[in-house]
Specification:
alpha+beta; four-stranded antiparallel beta sheet; 6 helices; five-stranded antiparallel beta sheet
């Protein structure tokens, strides 16, 4: 027996299990898995149910047809704000759109335009479902291995919903070399390799670019992570498929 997922019924999550050897005709008649069962108890105690499947447990035959596996909730709010700056008042419009899946907040973005926000939501739903990162259970992706700017790293949840931070992996590369290659990756030195650039750094004379390079490396040493932000802005990330 294994848990498949939770579905939302009347704003409350209920688990669906695959129970080997226990089948129902609803699945057989609809070409769906016939060993999927919904545990529909008002007072759900999953741990007790898993330890010993109680005969009193209300197991209902389950199929995906006609059911929202993910129940979406979209909230969009427009507002105005005012700031006093440079001896004058500045009034600006704004807006924020929040997406919830099965009652849990999974993503949000800012837009002052209602029509743009609604159009963005239509594409976002598909992006969040198909993306390698688990927006629905981000805690399960904490410590996930990735390549970031071609360097080994881990991904962790960021400070806001839908955001991530990058933590370098020093198991096969030194801290100095990791941050050096990262800064080189983000610098305008396409005309040479990192090894050539590193050789130049060892010379006695430094130009302004070299001085700035070393200053940035020293700054990085004060932190062992990068607060990357939006997990969808992942052009520099290579995700290992699970």
């Amino acid at each position: 027996m294994r848990k498949i997922f939770d579905i939302l019924i009347n704003d409350k999550p209920y688990p669906v299990y695959s129970i080997e050897g226990k089948t129902h005709n609803l699945g057989k008649n609809n070409g769906c898995p016939d060993d999927w069962w919904l545990l529909y108890d008002e007072d759900i105690n999953e741990s007790k149910f898993l330890d010993e499947m109680s005969e009193n447990s209300n197991l209902i035959p389950y199929i995906d047809k006609g059911v929202h596996r993910i129940c979406w909730e979209i909230n969009y709010k427009q507002f105005n704000r005012i700031k006093y700056k440079w001896d004058d008042y500045d009034i600006r419009d704004s807006g924020v759109c929040t997406l919830k899946a099965n009652g849990k907040e999974v993503y949000k973005f800012h837009s002052s335009d209602l029509m743009f926000a609604m159009a963005r939501v239509q594409t976002l739903v598909g992006e969040l479902i198909s993306h390698p990162y688990n927006f629905f259970k981000p805690e399960e992706d904490d410590g996930r291995k990735i390549f970031f700017c071609g360097l080994p790293a881990f991904v962790y949840r960021g400070y806001e919903v839908g955001e991530i931070k990058i933590v370098p992996d020093y198991s096969k590369i030194s801290k100095e070399l990791w941050w050096g290659r990262y800064e080189f990756y983000n610098s305008n030195h396409e005309d040479k390799s990192y090894e050539e650039f590193e050789d130049e750094l060892e010379k006695d004379e430094y130009d302004a670019d070299h001085e700035l390079f070393e200053e940035r490396i020293n700054e990085y040493y004060s932190s062992d992570s990068i607060n990357w932000g939006d997990a969808l802005s992942d052009g520099k990330i290579y995700w290992f498929r699970k």
